[in-house]
Amino acid sequence: MLLVIAGSVIVVPTASADDVTAKVFDTPEVRYVWMRSGPGTSYNTLGQLSAGTPVTLECYSYGSQVNAPYGATNIWYKLKDRDNEGYSGARIRN
Fold first, then answer.
1. Is residue 17 very low, low, confident or very high in pLDDT (cuts 50, 70, 90)?
2. Distance between CA atoms of 62 and 65, rounded to whole angstroms?
3. What's the distance, Cα to Cα, between the start and end of the chain in Å?
4. Which of 33, 23, 21, 24 has its CA nearest to residue 67?
5. CB–CB of 77/87 below 8 Å?
6. Model-level pTM?
7. Which of 24, 29, 28 lies closest to 88, judged by CA?
């Protein structure tokens, strides 16, 4: 599956697909993303990931809707290889 985020086309991994390496990107208003324990804003925060941080996207899930720089989305990416594997929304690209 392909997804356009911030003008970049990336391959969105599914549970059976290969992992994708991407980076957190910033906007003038926000220079980080929250990592959460599940795919939504009601889940506990596990920490922040600063702009430029490389991440490995294991898969994606649909969760609560969040505002993104280029529109609202309910897609949350599961981040692999973190101390606490968590989820992050909207501002990740390769």
1. low
2. 9
3. 15
4. 33
5. yes
6. 0.69
7. 24
- Whether the CB-CB separation of 39 and 63 falls below 8 Å is answered with yes
- Written as one letter, the residue type at 35 is M
What is the mean pLDDT of the segment spanning 13-39?
Answer: 75
Torsion sign (Cα): 22, 46, 36, 28: negative
Q: Are 89 and 45 in contact, with CB atoms under 8 Å apart?
A: no
Q: Give how far the C-alpha of residue 68 lies from the chain's centroid of Cα atoms, to the nearest Å.
A: 11
Q: Which of 28, 27, 25 is nearest to 52 (CA)?
A: 25
Strand order in the sheet with 86-89: 45-50, 32-36, 86-89, 71-80, 54-68, 20-24, 92-93
Residues in the chain: 94
pLDDT at residue 92, as a whole number: 64
CB-count burial class (<10 Å; 0-12, 13-18, 19+) for 90 = buried
